[in-house]
Design brief:
By secondary structure, the protein is α/β, with parallel strands linked by helices. It has two domains: 216 residues, P-loop containing nucleotide triphosphate hydrolases (Rossmann fold, 3-Layer(aba) Sandwich); 61 residues, YebC, transcriptional regulation domain (Alpha-Beta Plaits), CATH 3.30.70.980. The protein has ten helices and 13 strands. Bound molecules: adenosine-5'-triphosphate. The site of adenosine-5'-triphosphate (ATP) has 13 residues, from strand 2 and helix 1. The site of adenosine-5'-triphosphate has 13 residues, from strand 2 and helix 1.
Length: 299
């Protein structure tokens, strides 16, 4: 288990991470979220032992992460750091060897991964000749060449098109199913909702949301109802527990304080003509985040 306990980091007088705690178990995918400057990279560097925490501790299976366990760890850094004059194969041989792997094992793993990412033809191409997206795939492949038990991915999806986000996501899910623990950072809530169960959301180093996504949504309680019907918005606004009513495209969106308000809204809608939709949805993480911290943050 990875345990981050009461970790705080000061750069001089500046508090970058404030009393952060979370745990990640084998097979779990954990999201560390936050806008620019929230403290994500600082947290990863502390986990990897590249930066000392001002206070608090990070342990993996009850030990500090150090050189002894690097062969079991994969780290995709935020600042992409490929050796661009090397070919894809040379790059992977270099990193695989650093992780204590034999050449034939590295090549076999590389070939499997290149095929998965639909870029088998780039094996002997120089990295500088590849597109930005393909370079990112190579960096990801390098990070997972040793089938790490702990995989840390700093903004793995930044700059990727939706098809490649999907490829990365599937690989991450597969690794978790095989027992790896995976931590990734993102400033895009929607990347996280789809496949990660637990998360921490940081804002200026402080934890503003944490736990299982399902629990966070349950605790938030508010729900959204989407309606297609011929009805006056004013009638919906008068229902007790309705927080807001607005037109979204050709639908009406009604935000309610909790699930118990929904039947009351339904009663009103039932009297309308042309009803073709009445759907209760959970708010997105992004909506919960904005409700918690306000809209004054930099995306
Ligand atoms: P981004 O999404 O922009 O990469 P982040 O969440 O990874 O942001 P960090 O890079 O961890 O955030 O930075 C957290 C805060 O600490 C920022 O305000 C940043 O300016 C500050 N910071 C980071 N590194 C240093 C440093 N070496 N010295 C002083 N301040 C730093």
């Amino acid at each position: 288990m990875l345990k981050v306990e009461n970790v705080t980091k000061y750069y001089g007088d500046f508090l970058a991470v404030d009393n952060l705690s979370f745990t990640v178990k084998e097979g779990e995918i954990f999201g560390l979220l936050g806008v620019n400057g929230a403290g994500k990279t600082t947290t990863f560097r502390m986990i990897m032992g590249l930066l000392d925490a001002s206070s608090g501790s990070v342990t993996w299976n009850d030990k500090k992460i150090d050189y002894d366990v690097t062969d079991k760890i994969g780290f995709l850094t935020e600042e992409r750091s490929l050796l661009t004059k090397l070919t894809v194969k040379e790059q992977c041989l270099f990193y695989g060897t650093l992780k204590g792997m034999q050449d034939d094992v590295i090549i076999k793993r590389l070939e499997t991964l290149l095929e998965k990412f639909n870029i088998s033809e780039y094996k002997d191409k120089k990295i500088k000749e590849l597109s930005k997206g393909n370079q990112q795939k190579i960096q990801f492949i390098t990070a997972i060449i040793n089938e790490p038990k702990l995989l840390i991915l700093d903004e793995p999806f930044s700059g990727l098109d939706p098809i490649n986000v999907e490829l990365f996501k599937n690989e991450i899910i597969e690794m978790a199913q095989k027992g790896s623990m995976i931590i990734f950072s993102s400033h895009r809530m929607e990347h996280v909702e789809l496949f990660c169960e637990k998360l921490v959301v940081l804002l200026k180093g402080k934890t503003v949301l944490e736990g299982k996504i399902a629990d966070i949504k349950k605790q938030y309680r508010k729900k959204n109802i989407f309606i297609k019907a011929n009805i006056e918005l004013e009638k919906l606004k008068q229902v007790d527990g309705v927080l807001s009513v607005s037109n979204v495209g050709d639908e009406i969106e009604v935000k309610i304080a909790n699930e118990e308000v929904a039947p009351k809204v339904f009663e009103v809608v039932a009297k309308a003509s042309d009803i073709s939709k009445f759907v209760i949805e959970e708010p997105s993480l992004n909506e919960i985040f904005i409700a918690k911290v306000g809209e004054n943050y930099e995306k």
